[in-house]
């Protein structure tokens, strides 16, 4: 079952990082990544801007749509990136929004910011909110209260439940209840 977050969430906004964009493979043409994916930082990560060096906090992502002569329609995105966490990696947190390129009708969301806001998603290249600590309802795992939430497989950013930490796994939290239809409360402790 794919990872996903449910509506119940309890966290402090100070535990949400809004500086990283998602860098990863596409699950489908319209969804780049779903909310509830555990992510890690991609090198070089977030570089603070020094007083004497303005740096470059954004990068060109290429044209928004088709490319035409004598027309400039570049798209820009954040430089610091995250990707799906793997077992043994330093997990940064869990994504709170879907990252999408297209809406349900196959239209590019880059041309319709109002629709992006209505859908509660971010477009690839934009900063995706990453939660580092709090309580969420997580779906896609079978668990019981007190089990360790851990990333134990390579490259999928999803959780595994176990009473002990598996070899090579990365602990991300604790399950606070027993799953019902694959949905369980999760306390994220990163």
Report on this model:
There is one protein chain. By secondary structure, the chain is mostly beta strands. It has one helix and 17 strands. β10, α1 and β11 form a beta-alpha-beta unit. The chain is globular, with a radius of gyration of 18 Å.
List strands and helices in order, with pairings.
Blueprint: E1 4-10, E2 16-17, E3 21-22, E4 31-33, E5 38-42, E6 58-63, E7 74-78, E8 81-84, E9 91-95, E10 98-100, H1 113-119, E11 121-123, E12 130-131, E13 133-139, E14 148-151, E15 160-162, E16 170-175, E17 183-189
Parallel strand pairs: 3-8, 10-11
Antiparallel strand pairs: 1-13, 2-12, 4-10, 5-8, 5-9, 6-7, 9-12, 13-17, 14-15, 14-16, 16-17
Which value, in Å, is the CA radius of gyration? 18 Å
Mean pLDDT: 81
SS element count, helices: 1
Q: What overall form do the CA principal axes indicate?
A: globular
Order of helices and strands: EEEEEEEEEEHEEEEEEE
Number of domains: 1
User: What's the total count of β strands?
Assistant: 17
Low-confidence stretches: none
Structural class: mainly beta
| Beta-strand residue fraction | 35-45%
The largest beta-sheet arranges its strands as: 1-13-17-16-14-15
- From the structure provided, what is the oligomeric state, counting identical versus distinct chains? single chain
Helix content: under 10%
